[in-house]
Fold these 2 entries.
Entry 1:
Amino acid sequence: MSSNAIEFINVFKKFHKGERNDSLRDLIPYLSKKILFRSKNDQLREEDFWAVKNVSFQLKKGESLGIIGPNGAGKSTILKLLSGILRPNYGELHIHGRLSSLIEVGAGFHPDLTGRENIYLNGAIMGMRKEEIKNKFETIVDFSGISEFIDTPVKRYSSGMYARLGFSIAAHVDPEILLIDEVLSVGDFSFQLKCLNKIQEAIGNGTTVIFISHNLPSVITLCQNTILLNKGEIHKYGETKQVCRYYYKIYSDTRKATEDQCFTLQDMELYSSNGTPSTSFKPGEWAKLKLKVESKIKIDRLIMSFYLKKNDGMIVFDASSDIISNQYYSFNVNEGKEIELNFRMNLPEGAYFVGINLFNPEKGFYLYVDEGIEFYVSGPKTGGYAYMDLKW
Amino acid sequence: MREMFKEIVQYRQLLFSLAWRDIKIRYKQTVMGYMWAIFMPMLVVAAGIFVKKAFSILSGDPMDLSAMLSVGVKAIPFSFFLTSIRFSTNSLIGNTNLITKIYFPREVFPFASTIASLFDFLISSVTLAVILIFANIGISIYILWLPILLIFLITITTGVGMMLACANLFYRDVKYIVEVIAMFAIFFTPVFYDSKMFGKWETLLLLNPLGSILECLNAIIILHQPPNYYWLAYSGFWGIVVFLISWKIFHQLEFAFAEYI
């Protein structure tokens, strides 16, 4: 028995584009075409595409893995492969332990049955034994917070209640491996928080978790490692914060296309309050950002924006020169400029990036530096996103 | 084969939960509730008695009580077969969300459909048994064949149902074919008439394994005769073979269900 809970080795999964032959009427022309025009076999294959392409990863017991990526990247397909609903075309996968998947809450609900009856039914579908459900029944109902309506048919439930009940059942299955696919987007804020805590508790108890979500902050809180998936392939695989930052960066950078080659950033540096170059600061300390830019062409009235980003990709501060100080930058042909700005590090402990850009609202971006300098703030441990000057 | 059995045993609770769901929802929001399980076969029996009466008028023979009861003995298993087949055929495509979302052996769907229909069969059989007792039809030693005949009936029903469920998942034409066959099956199965009425063509009717099961049932319950052992063996052969082959095919194709549904 290996210590790996999940092994996913070079897995490929093919899907078919367009209509399949659903009825016999379509099958007969299809087969005759296939027999008559054998040479066109390759063309038929072109209708296939790889939903998952050469994906490999491993997960030890008790680890948690996030999977993020744009729609259609193959995230849910991976979960379906893991849970055994789909079989890969090539590659291997091994799973050690009782697996439960939260692919869609309430998938097994029957609208005509009451909440109580559905708990028993759905529990059985999720692989729970009858006594187990009986023992946990009260906890499940309490967790869902809909005990008043437990004897009402679920077709009369609101979609929020439906989701609450579905999640409550799934959360009490106590599997060794838990697969979660974008189920927290339902339910109100307090319920979402409750679910996140429940998942975190499960991870703490040694459950192996794979978590798919578009909600990056919750991926960051739950998972150590994350895979960024794009068009079925692993785009990036590593520590969650870095992967999330990368994801933010590449998918928010569509505007970068307008960047003009005639503009160059020659130098960019951070200085501490005593005037020496530094990348390490204390909360509340003054810092100075100096940059040198040069333009090969004549440009008028550029706006500069300055922003700070946390190392998980979250923008903590974003300001532009026109709003803050009504300042615009104009350049003549081959003119270089030095720009300075001072700011206070009102930030809690952590790693951050400075980003700047110069743009004209009508013409687009001329300079775009997303992660110009990485710097660290070290100070007392505090929570939240800002560090206030505090006199206690 | 062994693994298939093991898997089903492992998932038995799910199987019974699904069957229980199917039973429960069948008569939800109906006024008569479970009484439908008695009324429906009663209607078929009534139709059968009507047809028999027509036969007796034509032939000039008087209709006796045992002829009426024999319609009941045949019609109730027959309507179990039909309901179960209809129900199984749609059992996979009616649970698309479960098939594409959660893993478990997919056999549980057609099996649960059969169990749910079996529940109705049980209710109507008990009713029929009470009627038979009151009609003072008597009993013979041959009644001991009943459990074996019921096993053959159930295996053949499950087997056909499983095969059709699977076929219907890939080609939706199947459910229309099933409807047409269900409509006309009563004509080429000896339910309202006896296969003996056809003289030398009797064999042809009994080649339908359901027909031979029904005739054997009639023999042991109403006629107090031993079943025709050749036809008994014949229907038993079909019952087991159809069941095992269907299950095997179903199991082989199962992995593709989520993709093709």
Entry 2:
Amino acid sequence: MEARLTLEVGLDMKEPRRVVERFEQFALEHELPMGVTFKFQLALDELLTNVVSYAFEEGVRDPVITLDLQLADDRLEALLQDNGRPFNPMRDAPVPDLDLSAEDRRVGGLGIHLTKAFVHALSYERVDGWNRLNLVQPIGAHREDQT
Amino acid sequence: MNVETSYSGSTAVAVVDGRIDSANAKDFDEELSAIIDRGVSSLVVDCGGLNYISSAGLRVLLIAIRKTNEAGGGLALCSVPDHIREVLEVSGFVRLTKVFATADEARASFS
């Protein structure tokens, strides 16, 4: 099973949905387990939503956001790149306190928290003005989750 | 996403289906706010037809939990699909709201 998909993402709040639905279609075409698809889709959605919402100043010139998906050797990989302001979700996102009451809870950081919980391996680097996030999800390890 | 609501006094059951993400969380917020603004203090959100929720949707639920708590009632969820339940568990939302098997059980928890 080997496949690739490269997507350009526009700077628009409707884009994360379009892109993750395209990913969902890719996952269906390649018969990925539903559990893997859902978790990866949610992670991509949260990361893309963050980039679209916060990575660029208003009126920025030439914003570029790209997503490369690769399926090989029973694992799914995604490379999400943008030329926005530096943001390392592993280090810069607030860590939510899940023990607080509804009144005291803040939702900031929850998307990244879910992403970290749902993605097997997540790594970040800043290279020549680009944020590069790499996501890896083994497929085989999740097959037994499927019903 | 679609929300269908039935009212009974200050209790309401909102049946939500489809997908809630950053693209439509605002619509979901408007739907739940409109229900609460009608004097509903105890709100059951039936997630039987919900197939996707991201943190943008959780934020809306948190706001509705706060508003209904403030009104002296609360918010309960029911018929939550397994993969959505995992999102609620990982995000700690199972500690903020009760999750019931059926809408009837959820509604009964308020009486």
